[in-house]
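Fold these two proteins, one after the other.
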Amino acid sequence: MAAAASSTSLKASPSPTIASWMRQRSLSTTFGVTAISFRRVEPRGRHFVVLSMDAKPTILVAEKLGEAGVKLLKDFANVDCSYNLSPEELCTKISLCDALIVRSGTKVSREVFESSGGRLKVVGRAGVGIDNVDLAAATEHGCLVVNAPTANTVAAAEHGIALLTAMARNIAQADASVKAGKWERSKYVGVSLVGKTLAVMGFGKVGTEVARRAKGLGMHVIAHDPYAPADRARAIGVELVSFDEAISSADFISLHMPLTPSTSKILNDENFAKMKKGVRIINVARGGVIDEEALVKALESGIVAQAALDVFTVEPPPKDSKLVQHVNVTATPHLGASTMEAQEGVAIEIAEAVVGALKGELAATAVNAPMVPSEVLTELKPFVSLAEKLGRLAVQLVAGGSGVKSVKVTYASARAPDDLDTRLLRAMITKGLIEPISSVFVNLVNADFTAKQRGLRITEERIVLDGSPESPLEFIQVQIANVESKFASAISDSGEIKVEGRVKDGIPHLTKVGSFEVDVSLEGSIILCRQVDQPGMIGKVGSILGEENVNVSFMSVGRIAPRKQAVMAIGVDEEPSKQSLKRIGEISSVEEFVYLNL
């Protein structure tokens, strides 16, 4: 069998097949990628963003937008600025519009897309979050959704530093005291920043800018981010460390992570207990990353000396909120992006994205994908699910601190090289690798761009097999190089984290972890255990899960040799409690284990 390899590249010129594919769809090749092989798709059944240029398009701006952005829009299109529309009024207007721009106050529901009658081509969200846009409905109706994720970066970083310094010197409390007619100099003695350790939790755009500014204040800066390239951190004098090391050694902790299932309430009772007594917390990211009840307890106990918060789980927070009213908390009403310059920057960024999309260009800030031809999607559907789940599994096996930089994807197929389009599979692997620890939405449009932004290099290899090409793929393998693993058995003989999967009867299955053969359905979640191969192990683990009413869907054991080491893969429908997982780890023959959420 033979193998051929390629890698993602934002600068590479598209192959003739891709270039043709893009021209047929009036799409720019600005973000073309090199790929292994591509199948030409006939015009029948295509769905894509194309605008007839025989008349100016109409753009509805439903919430106030900076003048610079409005001017850009007017240079290209007819612009209707209609604010405070009711849902009914929006649905009435939308059938006359090619694009819609909103902020966070307008709900772009399924009814809006249905009312457009297919005319609406682009929705622009002037800001980062897209909770108010029904992405599934947008994609079903062939409508591209774009946002403006970068213009607020400096404003958010400056606000984080403002909160840090104001908290350290008790500015808000002292100001209130003086205005109340008091003069309490001894009460508001602060702490110096020079020489103190700041842990930046999330080293993306905002986190990086906060680190730069903190270094200028004489602080020692460390950071935690599984995807941050170590060389970029070193370039500004920042050390990347594990999550536990960051929170346990910091004098100040500044949060810049997205709100995802894995980061929700990540600062909780358990993690507050690991921190230095007297630590200070700053949050200009998302309110939900902090367990607010746990933070109040940590403030009362003195584990946390002070907190400076711009975001809350519920906004606005209740008037009687114990957290907001606490004497050692400085609070602001979500002002991170609220500078004149940032508001204008957002307006320009979203205007450029919407105009570009209407021109047929691929948008780097797209948060949903163009529709895939139905015949391709039908054939690849189970493999698309397999690809994403292998990515999710692989990234969850990475231990913190090192960062994911190099990923190799191998496809084994009996298909001819020009008869297997892997772009969608690569996009879904990228989605699985990035989305569990990021707020970025990854899809066919932005996958390669998003990977490059994070310093993630994905190479692809094709293994050509003998046999019938009836099935598009025999297996997919994902390897992550130059990282440590939470589960040592996932490291292959060549030193990479390796997972491999196949589709069986339409269901994705995990078939290899490291050098161990397993066979477990990728439905629900998975527990991996390395154990000494001996009788009774399946029963012991199954009994612990059964006592908690956790249903086991599949169980498979792969071993080196009888009575030697083995890896047991257990599919579960519910998440076991920490106590149950602890009991599994305490079984004498279990050498290591990990719980992986799919």
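Now the second one:
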Amino acid sequence: MSLTTSLSPNCSGTDTVVATTPLVTFLVRVQETALRTFGEEDFDPKRYVDLSLKSNLSKTQKAFDGLPRSGENGTVSVEDLKVFIATYFDDAGDDLVYYDPEDFFPEPEGFLPKVKNPEVRSWALEVHALWKNLSRKVSDGVLEHSELHTMLPLPEAVVVPGSRFREVYYWDSYWVIRGLLASKMYETAKAIVTNLIFHVNTYGYVLNGGRAYYTNRSQPPLLSAMVYEIYNRTCDVELVRKALPALLEEHAFWNSEIHKVTIQDAQGSNHNLSRYYAMWNKPRPESSRRDKEYASKFLDNSEKQQFYREVASAAESGWDFSTRWMRNTSEFSSLSTTSILPVDLNVYILKMEQDIAFFANVLGHKSTMESFLEAAEARKIAINSVFWNDEMGQWLDYRLTNGPICKESETWQACNQNQNAYASNFIPLWVDLFHSDAALVEKVMGSFQSSGLVHSAGIATSLINSGHQWDFPNGWAPLQHMIVEGFLRSGLKEARSLAEDIAVRWIKTNYVGYKKTGAMHEKYDVQKCGEFGGGGFYKPQTGFGWSNGVVLTFLEEFGWPEDRSIGC
């Protein structure tokens, strides 16, 4: 089988960059100075780009430029910098205020009816109560003087992931919403969707997160899935009416020239698939020094710029960072995200196409419904043509031989499929076009069970222990959820029992971790029940939006019998 790939015509737009604000540029200077002054220990670069100005930028810059400096690299003293920051800035996170959600009740009516074990029930109510801790509203100051903040204005309240992630995040919000629905907090769930629709109406796509330095990229596109789940519970036609134009715009964004890659197979049929592609070619403001350090391996400026784009595109994928995006799994500077057609991204877009068709039908827009059913069918064929590996029984990411550089076409080769085991290889099962095929589910189930990804405390992200957080031995709530839900919805008895087995392992590790540390964690170590995960470029975080959401979703689906133990 030979396939030919071509990037969009002339690849116009592939050097696209969305400009940042003067405030972000200035805060990066403050961040670099702070690192020199305070040193590496406990230094979180994100804190500095999250600061808000107390007065205008030019006055603050003037004061900063006037600070006494010593030595070759112009170091500011600890005392001077502390006084300067306290005088001219409000702290990171001050631009959000705590918000008391009106639809929160300590024990909602009909909450988790299948959870019979009193220990598990009382823990689930504690997890439910965390929604109150994580609810925020953008402060009036941001709405009145947006130029003093990197926080972006939003019309409604938000639920934040937690800890250093003190703003709304795109793909996290899907699992937050699933948890809110289990908690019967329908209005809070709708408010999150309203904010993300506001992003699309303002910027043309949903941003990675709610900060000025995130405007150059999106994140896994799950807005349609959020609307679908809320509609499923509430039958809110007005929400669908409000969402549909934004979803059409988002779909156009993910199929625009920078994202779309066309692949021609041996029969001359064209298949369109999408890739991650950030509109940015500089160090990320929230991680400026580290990006520069890795880029220092490149001598040529255009190579540095390409590397910065690959880093930002990996951040757009939500998997920041993973060997999945590296040509050489031991070399971070070999990131080549834009040269990879990812299985999961195309599954999310397929789901978006199905959801748009469903919403169009709800609203009586027959021609939109028909064209999106066709688009979904075409993408399903593309996913199977390019990603499916029959021998392995998995869908594998595909690497473009030409890289991100534009050429007319290239020939598909089996060796360009990434044969490493990643949890993303099984994400297609999440969508009914795949999990409704019983023979396929059985094949994939066998492949999954022998993949090496299934461990005592959940599904590993990969088999490669690279020190990056989206690799072994970390397990992440969203990946557990999509794979479990895919097996569950197939309706096969053995698949349901596998799904429940994984959900039970995941609930246990979350429970034991919570009892040990008093917190829910961002990620977990799938080898050790009750241990949170590590690796990556920042300290492990707690809170935690999507972990809370997945635990509540699993408990709602599977319950917990009175006689089942909850310990490891």
